[in-house]
Backbone:
C-alpha cells in the first residue's frame, strides 16, 4: 500500500467490546528532556482511570548521543534526516532507554505497562518515505504509516495494561523506520476508534493552540475546521502548530471522538475540558 495518509486497520472489529473511553496521549520531547516534568506527568498519567495508550517522542537525547559519537545530524523543517547511523541511534534511544524508562516509572506508580515499537507484534507497518512524497527531500529511513494491527493492542487494554509506544516502525521486510510520533498517535487513535470512544491528546509545553505564540494566555478553547482555515489564511497560527492541527482534524474526520491539545502538566484538566484546545466537528444547521 502506498500513500502517506492511507492507513489500514488490521483485525479492528471486536463486536463484543462496548464503546468505552480510550485515551491516546502523545508527549513531546520537551517533557522527556526534563526528568522532573516527566516524573510528574507520568504520575498524572497513571492516575487516569480507564484504558490508555502513551506515544512518546525522542527528545534531545538522541541528538546528544549522535554528537558524542561524532555522527552529524541534519534537520529539515524540524524533522530529522535519518541515515543508517542515525537510525541505529534513535532505535537505541527511543525504543530502548526512553521507552523502558517510561515503563519503569509507570510501574512505580502502580500502573502496569508494557513498551512497544511498531515492529513488536507487527503493531505498525510503514513504508519508507520517497523524495517524491516529500518535496524532493530524501529523509532517509523515515517511515509513513500503512497499517495498525489493533488485534495486538485489544487484549492488553482489556487487562488494563497501559501501552507505551516508541516512534519506531517497520516495513515488513526487516527494515526499521523512524516515524513521526504525532502521526503514530493519530494513526493509533483512528484505528482504535472502531472499538472505543477515543480521545487523542497532544501534550507539550504550551497551554494549547495560541493566537499569540508568545503569550500562553491566548488559548483558543475550541476550534472547528472552518475556523482553522480562517486562522491559517490570516497567519494567526504559528507554523509549528499546523502539523498538529492537520493531524487532529484528520483524526476527527476518521472516527476519533475528540482531540485535545495542551500543556502536559495539565493533563487532568485537559481530559475534563477545563484547559487546552478542543478540536471539534463543524456543527451544521
Residues:
Amino acid at each position: 500500500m502506498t500513500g502517506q495518509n492511507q492507513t489500514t486497520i488490521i483485525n479492528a472489529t471486536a463486536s463484543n467490546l462496548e464503546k468505552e473511553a480510550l485515551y491516546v496521549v502523545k508527549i513531546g520531547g520537551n517533557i522527556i528532556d526534563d526528568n522532573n516534568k516527566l516524573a510528574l506527568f507520568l504520575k498524572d498519567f497513571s492516575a487516569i482511570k480507564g484504558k490508555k495508550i502513551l506515544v512518546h517522542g525522542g527528545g534531545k537525547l538522541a541528538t546528544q548521543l549522535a554528537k558524542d559519537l561524532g555522527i552529524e545530524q541534519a534537520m529539515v523543517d524540524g524533522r530529522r534526516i535519518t541515515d543508517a547511523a542515525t537510525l541505529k541511534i534513535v532505535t537505541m534511544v527511543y525504543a530502548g532507554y526512553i521507552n523502558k524508562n517510561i515503563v519503569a516509572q509507570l510501574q512505580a506508580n502502580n500502573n502496569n505497562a508494557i513498551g512497544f515499537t511498531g515492529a513488536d507484534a507487527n503493531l505498525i507497518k510503514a513504508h519508507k518515505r520517497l523524495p517524491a512524497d516529500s518535496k524532493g527531500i530524501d529523509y532517509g529511513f523515515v517511515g509513513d504509516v500503512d497499517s495498525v494491527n489493533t488485534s495486538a493492542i485489544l487484549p492488553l487494554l482489556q487487562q488494563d495494561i497501559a501501552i507505551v509506544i516508541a516512534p519506531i516502525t517497520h516495513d515488513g521486510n526487516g527494515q526499521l523506520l523512524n516515524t513521526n510520533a504525532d502521526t503514530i498517535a493519530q494513526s493509533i487513535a483512528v484505528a482504535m476508534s472502531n472499538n472505543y470512544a477515543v480521545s487523542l491528546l497532544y501534550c507539550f509545553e504550551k497551554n494549547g493552540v495560541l493566537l499569540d505564540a508568545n503569550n500562553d494566555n491566548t488559548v483558543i478553547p475550541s476550534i472547528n475546521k472552518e475556523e482553522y482555515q480562517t486562522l491559517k489564511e490570516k497567519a494567526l497560527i504559528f507554523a509549528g502548530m499546523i502539523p498538529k492541527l492537520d493531524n487532529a482534524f484528520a483524526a476527527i474526520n476518521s472516527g476519533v471522538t475528540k482531540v485535545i491539545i495542551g500543556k502536559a502538566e495539565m493533563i487532568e484538566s485537559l481530559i475534563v475540558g477545563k484547559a487546552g484546545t478542543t478540536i471539534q466537528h463543524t456543527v451544521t444547521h
